[in-house]
Predict the 3D structure of the following.
Amino acid sequence: MSDERQKFDLASFKETIVSLVIAFAMAFAFRGFVVEAFVIPTGSMAPTLMGAHMRLTSDLTGQDWPVGPWDYTDGDARQHPKPIQGSGVGLPVVIHDPSAGTFANGPEKRLTGVPLLAGDRIFVLKYLYSIFDPKRFDVVVFKNPTDPYENYIKRLIGLPGEQIALIDGDVFARRARAGGDLSWSGEGWQIARKSERVQRAVWYPIFDSRLWPSSSPLRSPWSGAGWNLRDPGAARHEGGSPARLDWDEDEWPITDFLAYNEERGRQPGLATYPPPRGLLPSFPVSDVRTAMAVIPDGDLEVSATLSTRGHEFRGRIIEREAIVEMRAQDGGWIEVHRGALKAPLAHGVVTTIDFWHVDQALWLFVDGELVAGGREHGGYDWSPEQRVRATLGMDLARLGASDRLQYEASRYPKPRLWWEFSGSAVTIKRSGVWRDLYYQPTVRSSQPNPSEAGTPALATHPSTTPSLGPDQFFVCGDNSAASLDGRLWSGVDPWVAATFDHAERGIVPRELLIGKAFFVYFPAVQRRMGLFVPDFGRMRFIW
């Protein structure tokens, strides 16, 4: 080999090595300072993000959905789920199709040998919060203040300089008061409303007629005189007197129960953490979305009404007008906002009407376009005091530190829902009902401090209202009934307490924030035709 060729090969080798070193350095720098991948270990953020879980499919409706682990190698500690669920001497996995009605009465399926799937793998923008301040309802990754060797992921609901109250599942906030005033009856409280994008991402389905086969043996959750409801995917009323469709809240309760949590069952009761096995409480949820595709035979007026908290909330379509309004049950209608449609509902044309009542605001959409209400124009501004009175029928003065009324699910009103149609015969399709995130009012268990058993969790009572400093944040899990989060942390790690003078129980110091979760890049692997295939269809942005 010539000297020139040897020199060329040596130079090429050096260039290759240098290129590899630079590539690895850039990769490590990118991972360390820009984006890092994490794996979701638990179901505290379900169904937004899945930890280790089973994915099951209904033979009746075809729906597939995630369910958390049933069997653990460490028993009640519940930290290490078995790779195969419903096996050995344990009970089989017993599940109910969540799209088929009441949890206890729906079609039951018993399974053994169900493989456990890994949690979602996500990308996190690191050090984003060194440049931009975090926003409420961001999904954030941080070091656990009770054990900084663990990474946690939750939704950010409390910002620096705020006081936070969790009332009937919603978030109220105000600027912190001098002198430590924690009263819920004071001035300045406002409900925290989610953006439309975040809200669409967190709606949880209660019923969707598109999942029902045309010959379904199940009974429709809707009922009304003069309706042909034999086909659950479409219903018909021939007109005449005004037609009304009522939601069956007894057989199809609108609660914060998650099918993901079925292993612990669903029982109304007192919210405690950790919940006893088989006694996970469920609370009625009044932040509700309902939608239908309507096909009129002529001129048609349509309204959707939700009754809860001693009031009725309604969205109406009358010719070219869209109206959202509310009233006390013994009072007259008060118009909240009015908008205009591009055209009235047309004969034979399919039009989708979508009505929301969420975060003390009314939204009305027609074919996906907001026509009345919304975050800015559809709100009604009840204070925490008004919300407690409307929901529980009691004054804050009665909400003593030992009063547990706000923690009993049976005290909360069951929402009633109905649609009304007048003017012509009508066919409806694609009917659905969804509910919002619900942050449960929780009390502490006897672990690790027996003296605290039954005391209010953070932010769930005026006496435990967190007042956040300049570098403090408050977080909760989307799977509120089964989330160990800022409401319930038992203390602060000694190193964290010694290092950060603003470290306090139940809060996340700014220095422990890692970044914002923004994308699920590798959902759980599925087994298909004997092969393990990544479920690319569930790749998604995180809101």
Remarks:
- Confidence is low (pLDDT under 50) at residues 18-33.
